[in-house]
Automatic annotation (TrEMBL):
GO biological process: amino acid transport
Protein's UniProt name: Branched-chain amino acid transport system substrate-binding protein
Signal peptide bounds: 1-20
Annotated ranges, domain Leucine-binding protein: 32-376
UniProt keyword Ribonucleoprotein present: no
Keywords: Amino-acid transport, Signal, Transport
Taxonomy, superkingdom: Bacteria
Length: 386
């Protein structure tokens, strides 16, 4: 009889443990707040993912050392989406349903972000991309996605910045657009650049496309050279951009090559070579050369932590972490719904890349900069306000 009662008692304990395991580990009685990180840690844009995560981890470290958030420690639960939309969907599902996170930061690329949004919506967990610039991330068919947020400016602004720079600063009259047709990011930027460039009186004399992971661009670049444009706009990521720049210069294309924040990686110089990038310009979210005290402090802290200078991706990761931390503080809770409500009211938050206020579409209103490449170095060219 004693064995029977012991067995029943053991079974009851096991059931209780299983039931407890089904609930969120970030409940009100927990001393931790679990935040998901769904990033490209391997694959085509792994450098971007790692840099963004580094920025987030630095922000979390600083806050935890200062006592945490609402008396709790922030814990970052990472998942590698392998730079693939399908894997991004798998990663966010795991983070939400198994790891029970209160919010998810990431992914980096617009295509990967878009693959995760319905899952966040279905589970009512906020998804905040530090870097995804496609407008459809936060607005779908004219309707704001209630659980989708971002920490960066959007493609229409970035495309407009580079179109205005081409027309007004470089005095370009004609342009060719060369995009990655497998990328929502690239396609969106193409549309916004074309609209702004033609509005400024310019003419798009050609549109060409490649696919991610292509290696040889010379046939298309030869065609572009024959068009004789004043500038070539290449809104894509560093792997392909580096090869395109290198091959373009080898073919004798000397006109300015323009891009966007997807260019911002030290590997770009390794792939293209410093000389091939001269007379190249791209839009970005901040410049580490900025003498603003907040930028200086961030750059020094990042270099101390990682022994390298922070890219714009690292700065955006840091800033988006601060935005989430601010929302959790104001919510006074790690409940996903309350965090969502607080995120929506983010206003005048001072971060590294500027003063951050979310508009009615969950997009930040903030400045951009134009960077010039000179002998393999990024040089601040000009700042553009929204």
């Amino acid at each position: 009889m004693r064995k029977k009662w012991m067995g029943l008692l053991l079974s009851a304990v096991m059931v209780t443990g299983l039931v407890a395991g089904c609930g969120s580990s970030t409940g009100s009685d927990s001393k931790e707040i679990k935040i998901g990180a769904n990033f490209e840690l391997t694959g085509g844009v792994a450098n971007f993912g790692k840099q963004t995560v580094n920025g987030i981890m630095l922000a979390f470290k600083e806050v935890n050392e200062a006592g945490g958030v609402n008396g709790k420690k922030l814990v970052l639960v990472q998942a590698d989406n392998k730079s693939e939309p399908s894997e991004a969907a798998n990663a966010v599902t795991k983070l939400i349903t198994q790891d029970k996170v209160s919010a998810v930061l990431g992914p980096v690329t617009s295509s990967d972000v878009l693959a995760t949004l319905q899952i966040g919506q279905d589970n009512k967990v906020p998804i905040i991309t530090p870097t995804g610039t496609n407008p459809n991330i936060t607005v779908d068919n004219g309707q704001v996605r209630p659980y989708a947020f971002r920490g960066c400016f959007i493609d229409p602004f970035q495309g407009q910045v580079m179109a205005n720079f081409a027309a007004k600063t470089l005095k370009a009259k004609t342009a060719v657009i060369y995009i990655d047709s497998s990328s929502d990011y690239s396609k969106g930027l193409s549309e916004s650049f074309e609209a702004a460039f033609t509005k400024n009186g310019g003419q798009i004399i050609g549109k060409e496309a490649f696919l991610q992971k292509d290696q040889d661009f010379k046939a298309t670049l030869t065609k572009i050279k024959g068009m004789n444009p004043d500038v070539v706009f290449i809104p894509a990521y560093y792997e392909e951009v580096g090869k395109i720049n290198k091959q373009a210069r080898e073919l004798g294309i000397t006109v300015p090559l323009l891009g966007t924040d997807g260019w911002d990686d030290s590997k770009l110089v390794e792939i293209a070579g410093a000389a091939a990038l001269n007379n190249g310009f791209f839009s970005n979210h901040y410049s580490p050369e900025d003498k603003d005290p907040r930028v200086v402090k961030f750059v020094e802290a990042y270099k101390k932590e990682y022994n390298e200078a922070p890219s714009a991706l690292a700065a955006l990761g840091y800033d988006t972490a601060l935005m989430l931390i601010d929302a959790i503080k104001r919510a006074g809770s790690d409940d996903p719904g309350k965090i969502r409500d607080a995120l929506e009211k983010t206003k005048d938050l001072q971060v590294v890349t500027g003063v951050l206020t979310l508009d009615e579409n969950h997009n930040p209103v903030k400045s951009a900069v134009v960077i010039e490449m000179k002998d393999g170095k990024q040089v601040f060219r000009e700042k553009v306000n929204p």
